[in-house]
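Summary for the funding panel

The consortium committed to producing paired sequence-structure records for every protein in the target list. Below we show the first two records in order, beginning with the earlier of the two.
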Amino acid sequence: MTTAPAPGSATLTRDAAGERLSISDDWTLAHYPALQRRANELAGSIGADVAVDIARLGAMDTSGAFVIAELLGSARTQQLAQHEDLPAARRALLKTVGDAIDAYCKGVKRKRDAGFVEALERIGRSLEGFWKQTAKLLAFIGITLQGFLATVWQPKRWRVTSLVSHIEQTGLDAVPILALLSFMVGAVVAFLGSTALASYGASIFTVDLIGFAFLREFGVLLTSILLAGRTASAFTAQIGSMKAREEIDAIRTLGLDPVELLVLPRVLALLIALPLLTFIAMIAGIVGGGVVCMAVLKMSPSMFLSMFQADISLTQFLVGIAKAPVFAFMIGVIGCMEGFKVSGSAQSVGEHTTSAVVQSIFVVILLDALAALFYMEMGW
């Protein structure tokens, strides 16, 4: 009757000669759980100068060699692999396992160190992409202005039908949603303003708050953000679909200029529609604020209008409306530029449509902040 091989054991003893770790019996996969538990028990208690006794070591496979290497550490495992009392096969196994652990530890360290480098690399790529995108935008602005100057003095080259169609799509069709949005925002601003000013006994100045907010900022900003999401995406999708179907190449083959045919009518339509929509947004926002003033502050319409006329100057309106053409031009240019960058797949159309909306909103808010700083320095 044969007996089952005894699981490997590791015994740590201390005497006058120092520490001694005795490794005996079988260190194989069959006994791996027990070996791992014993190694965990001894972890941290083995000194740097421990002497390793392997005279009674039985069978050993890769699993056992791994536990021994984990217990002793890489350096001592490499020393043990040079022990003359071990057969050559076991020395080779211990050396292979030790080398593998060394390589793994170095790889983990490199990976941890690479995390910071990878973050810096990502930041660098983002900055590089930002500057490249800025350069492309400036170049496309130049192409658009060049095309405009080339056609403005030649009425026979004007695309009047396309211009009117885009004015209807970008302007007239956006009036209901813009008026409703501005009305509600005006009501919210008036309600919050009256609530905050009431604690100071200055609720009457809610009229001034509404006037300044919508004539200077909210009117043009709400309109521009709405058209950035509604119109810039439409321009990108329309031109991108034409690019995907190779219609842009067909236009060039016919000797026509895609910028003159596709970009100028859209940009000019926005230049006409956005200031008009801004005026509508201003009126709707002021009406919304006036309704709240009449309902909450019990202010009569005549009193609201008289205070508005007395405190709000024409300068506030001009400051706000002056930003509308700039925003319109940038929204139109970005929307058309992203359309021309579509590669040919439906996924590319979606990606560039999203990019057009994000870029348009970012540029609008950035230009609005710069304009606010400029107006503040000028005292307007």
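The next record, for a separate protein in the list, is shown here:
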Amino acid sequence: MTTHMRSIVASLNAQPQWEHREQPQPGPNEVLIKVAYSGMNRADLMQLAGHYPPPPGASDILGLEVSGTVVALGSAEHQLQLGDHVCALLDSGGYAEYVAVPVNQVLPIPKGVDLSAAAGICEVFATAWYNVYVIAAAQPGERILVHAAASGVGQALLQLAKQRGNPTFATAGSDEKLALAAALGAEQTWNRHQGSFVEAVTSWGGADVILDPVAGDYIGWNQQVLNQDGRLVVIGLMGGRAAELDAGRLLIKRQRIIGSTLRSQPNTIKARIMADLYTHVWPLFEQKKITPNIDDVLPVADVAEAFARLRHNANAGKLLLVW
């Protein structure tokens, strides 16, 4: 007998749509999670609008991270057991009652973090860690410019940077969000509605690493504030895809500009990132040196309202859906 479940996909008119789907079965190296909470991400908003299709072979069900309970195991031997409370980084499929996940993309919930908040830590901390400390290889003492600093990724990076000895400069779109960034450790802040941040960041000492989900006009401004051998990692297009590049500055200052998306990375990379989180980040949660960045938890029935809040940048940190 086929077992069905509720799930949410993108409709043709770019709205969340409920569908009944067959409940997935875990493959040899997978576990099946009964989803308790789904974490929302801007990538979900892009997929909803038709701009960010799932990787080949992945489900069209929305959602890149969940927390929940292991209810079935594939054939591989591993540390997870039935009944374990876990959180997981997904290729897709998180807006559903059940999801099958490669076991190496699943982690036990850090001690001291509740089941709801755990749905909002994998994607943002994986993004912050991988792009800044693996790709850009930020070293202690290097200065980091964090754009959209009150976003889930921004808040994750501010906390990691503080723990790893990296001074931070934060930009965001309201004084309330900047106050939040300062409370998380940002040395200086800049309201994006004031225009270019170039003079302020230059006076601060410039940036060795920049994490940028904005692009557009920010690309040129980022180049102006990057120090010698600086690294700019672009992870989003909130400001538009067209940008003007200064090739002279790129060469003279030996700048590196890197485009990066997490979702399309192969399982081998995601597994390495999750192992890094377990080694380097989970202890910080357990020692209460960092915290999840949760803005609100909404019933899954209110998913359309949740997307509207995400679309209008009305959140500071993660929005979660409870099943």
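Regarding this second record: Residues 4-121+263-322 form a domain with the Quinone Oxidoreductase; Chain A, domain 1 fold (CATH 3.90.180.10). The radius of gyration is 19 Å.
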